[in-house]
User: What shape does this take?
Amino acid sequence: MKYHINKELVVLVGPMGAGKTTIGKILAKELGFEFYDSDKEIERRSGANIPWIFDVEGEPGFRDRESLVIKDLSQRKNIVLATGGGAMMRKENQDYVSRNGFIIYLNTSVEQQHNRTHKDRNRPLLQGDKDAFQVLSELFESRDPIYREVADLVMDTDRKSLKSVVKHIIDSLEGRETK
Ligand code: S3P
Assistant: This one.
């Protein structure tokens, strides 16, 4: 084994556009873990895309599906799990991932979140009449303290290369750095 880490579940949390999927895939490959994305898994299991689920079942319907997926995936071993930006707002989801997981908050400026999401039509919370930057700012305001609270590692990603973010995470997983 290339790395000596004592966690079999690595969980990425943080806002839309934080790079959870991109970083998660690289990290999983590096660790020899499988990569899962809770949004993708919800879509796979329901056979519908996220905007459709929000449309038909509303946000509560989506959140129930999300909790089921997180409950299930957080029991797996040797995986990196990227969670949707709102997933940690439910206490039960925090509990599922905290049980076995090492939780990393990918902290990203609202500017960066906006740059990465503004062309995307797959995120219902950013599609309304309200300005997307404003929505991201408000979400950040309310969610940042929760991400911090649940995280074992807070990783600032702005102005850092993917390589250095992944290296820093692995150092932390190997116990070379702490919170
Ligand atoms: C959401 C984030 C999205 C997705 C859904 C709701 C949120 O995931 O779960 O659109 O509440 O912030 P990403 O963070 O992967 O974009």
